[in-house]
């Protein structure tokens, strides 16, 4: 059975991804900072809960130890935990504002992948999915036909650009893994005040698809529901 960890999975896209993957036969670990909400989500889906704060080295190390002790290894890691940060106008954004977002969205990916790489490398077909965004693409945010081009923000879009480049570099560093970034699209979640036109089920589709890649699947790619996302 494929064992999968999803960070930030007690609600939103992470929760829906967990639901779909559990339905497809994955043994899912729900990763969340809040123990009460995380355990409730795991109970609802018939999954297992592991407490993890991706901004904290000790918390991530403890989560990795918990999953290793449980046996069964780890085959798929979905780095979904993310925050949007303050909605401060760009001219007023400080380095501290940006750092807060990067701590979760960027450094969290590095922290989690470093901690879980030893487990993943024991898998016959390890997969990593980094949840990025079209807001991290020069091409998408410059296209007047795309909603993303109307959004002027600093911390969140640049953090997702960083996630995409981390993906490219990790894919080269770990050729035995399938490491990809995905753009779920403008999906109605708490992150955007449920303003997105896509349903949570639609947004999760590309995450689930990338989490299901086999050893012959793509790696180092940036994908959405339609195919390759232009950078």
Characterise this structure.
- This protein is α/β, with parallel strands linked by helices.
- The protein is 42% helix and 15% strand.
- The mean pLDDT is 95.
- The radius of gyration is 16 Å and the shape is globular.
- A hairpin with a 2-residue loop joins strand 7 (222-224) and strand 8 (227-228).
- The chain has helices spanning 12-23, 35-45, 57-70, 95-105, 107-120, 138-141, 155-173, 200-211; strands at 3-7, 27-32, 48-51, 76-79, 127-131, 178-182, 222-224, 227-228.
- The protein has an eight-stranded mixed β-sheet, sandwiched between helices.
Classify the helix fraction into a percent range. Answer: 40-55%
Structural class: alpha/beta
Principal-axes geometry comes out as: globular
Instruction: Name the beta content range.
Output: 5-15%
Distance between the termini: 35 Å
* Radius of gyration, CA atoms, in whole angstroms: 16 Å
- Low-pLDDT ranges: none
The mean pLDDT is 95
Widest sheet, order of strands: 3-2-1-4-5-6-7-8
Main beta sheet: 8 strands, mixed
Number of strands: 8
Order of helices and strands: EHEHEHEHHEHHEHEE
DSSP helical segment count: 8
